[in-house]
Amino acid sequence: MDSFMMEGVQKTAGFRIDSLLSAGEGERMRYTCSIDTPLGMVTASAEDGAVTGLWFAGQKYYPDPAGWAPKPDYPVFKALGVWLTEYFAGARPPLEFTLRPRGSPFQKRVWELLADIPYGEVCTYGDIARRLALQPGSPSASARAVGGAVGHNPISILIPCHRVVGSTGNLTGYAGGLERKKALLQLETPLGGFMPPAGGPLRTPGSLLRPPPEGVS
To answer: Alpha-carbon distance 113 to 32, whole Å?
Structure first.
């Protein structure tokens, strides 16, 4: 199962989004570099040694990099490049560097749940909305609202928004393009055989469908 590190704390099957950048976000130096992958070039961004973004070239919600400083030798970019190489080779490399995506509190809750979706499995937007409703203090959210947060995920692949599908298994709503989404799911599925089900039940991760343990939000 994937392993994620957030603010120096490694956690299995997920990570916590901190609020460090909730104020004064734009005051930090943001570094960037381009990395070639089998699905095309991606642009990465990082601040204070943490990855803050990963976008396919030209994807929806692609940010304006004005003011970012190119720094391909930044240590976290080297670690990211190694991770992507191993991932696209079919491995499940541990994520041993920090992710720090920017977003609203609601978006960060959704992104945390995305990180709980196991490699090789999928869930629906409705699954995530139901899981959110089980969290103490979390307002109810529609599948459409969840879809908006999923679509604005700023760290593609690493926060696996490609593992979220429509209610019937249709491949919908991927900012990087549906062909890339299909390719990522095929890569993660044994024998590369992912096919959207034709009206059948989806294979969804139980961690999204079960209530959280008592006292855990």
So the answer is: 26
Could you report the per-residue pLDDT of 25-44, keeping only the tens digit for each?
445 789 999 999 999 999 99
Per DSSP, the three-state class of 32 is: strand
Q: Identify whether residues 79 and 155 lie together within a single domain.
A: no
Residues 54/156, Cβ–Cβ less than 8 Å: yes
Stretches where the chain sits below pLDDT 50 are: 1-14, 16, 18-26, 197-217
Same domain, 118 and 81: no
- Per DSSP bridges, beta strands 164-165 and 69-70 are unpaired
In terms of residue numbers, what domain contains 66? 3-20+30-88
Q: Give the span between the Cα atoms of 112 and 104, in whole angstroms.
A: 12
Specify whether 117 is located in the same domain as 202.
Answer: yes
| 161 flagged as catalytic | yes
Proportion of the chain above pLDDT 90, given as a percent:
53
Is pTM beyond 0.90 here? no
Write down the catalytic residue from 54, 113, 128, 161.
Answer: 161
> What's the total number of domains in the chain?
2
Name the strand (E) or helix (H) holding 106.
Answer: helix 105-114
